[in-house]
Amino acid sequence: MTIKAVFFDAAGTLMRTRVRVGETYARIAANHGKTVSPADLADRFRLCFAAAPRLAFPGAAEETVCALERKWWKDLVCEIFRPWAPFEDFEEYFTELFDYFASYEAWVLYPEALDTLHELKRRGLILDVISNFDSRLIGILAGLGVGPFFEHVFLSSHVGYAKPDAQIFYTALRQHELEPADVLHVGDSDVCDLQGAGQAGLRAVLIDRDSQVKILGPERIDSLRSILRLVDDR
Q1: Rounded to the nearest 5°, which phi and psi values hold at 55?
Q2: pLDDT value at position 220?
Q3: CA 191 to CA 169: how far, in whole Å?
Q4: Which of 84, 106, 98 minimizes the C-alpha distance to 18?
Q5: Residue 116 CB coordination number (10 Å)
Q6: What is the pLDDT of residues 10-31, one digit of tens each?
Q7: What is the mean pLDDT of residues 196-217?
Q8: How far is CA 106 from the centre of its chain?
Q9: Confidence tier at 98 by pLDDT (50, 70, 90)
Q10: Three-state helix/strand/coil letters over 109-175
Q11: Strand partners for 8
């Protein structure tokens, strides 16, 4: 079956934070009178993010989504700092933090991302993003210079379903009138991307740049450039 489209996850797949999350949380907190180590904040972020409800708001009116996204993140950051309460300047801190990560300058593309997108587009493939992110992602992708490559960006907060729920993948398939076998999905999460897309019937590959044990193959790659081979082989 010929691959007609490639769907991408965003953070951890196409791009990463320019500075580690714990370091940014700690630096901005220090600006607001709260001193916590980057390592402690990184640990709390991982723990709290994993335990947080999915960033999706089924049935929400479109005009309310941005406010719901901001509240979701505020609740998460509040929980992250719970061991160091009280945080008297928290409101101002959160506003600065949220706005910082809305800027494309807080993010950087992986080195091979731009060339890979160029090559996939040259082959005539449909390219989309499917992400458990929020509305800030649209401006980030535009600022990084890759927004025009994608026909659609499907955000869990707007779709109402978050990966690994198959419904977010089905939404993208319906948009293009594609069958699951027409699509290759690429992401960095074993659960959200590899398993989620697979359960929806899509061909899925895991981008794994950091594993100490490189077990590469049909379902695991260490560079986005490997997508070109996978697409050309189909």
Answers
A1: -80, 75
A2: 87
A3: 14
A4: 106
A5: 22
A6: 999 999 999 999 999 999 999 9
A7: 80
A8: 14
A9: very high
A10: ECCCHHHHHHHHHHCCCEEEEEECCCCHHHHHHHHCCCHHHCCEEEEHHHHCCCCCCHHHHHHHHHH
A11: 129, 186
Burial 161-197 (b: 16+ CB within 10 A, else e): bbbbbbebbbbbbeebebebebbbbbbbbeebbbebb
Which amino acid, 161? Y
pLDDT of residue 210: 76
State phi, psi for 200 to the nearest 5 degrees.
-85, 0
Q: Which two tokens stand for residue 148?
A: 């025009």
Q: Which amino acid is at 210?
A: D
Q: Is the pLDDT of residue 3 over 90?
A: yes
Task: Quickly count: other Cβ atoms within 10 Å of residue 81's Cβ.
Answer: 20
Q: Say which residues have a Cβ less than 8 Å from residue 6's Cβ, sequence separation at least 6.
A: 120, 125, 126, 127, 128, 183, 184, 185, 186, 227, 231
Our separate counts of H helices and E strands in the chain read 10, 8
Name residue, tokens 């997108």.
Answer: 117
Q: How far apart are CA 49 and CA 44, in angstroms?
A: 8
pLDDT in tens, 164-193: 999 999 999 999 999 999 999 999 999 999
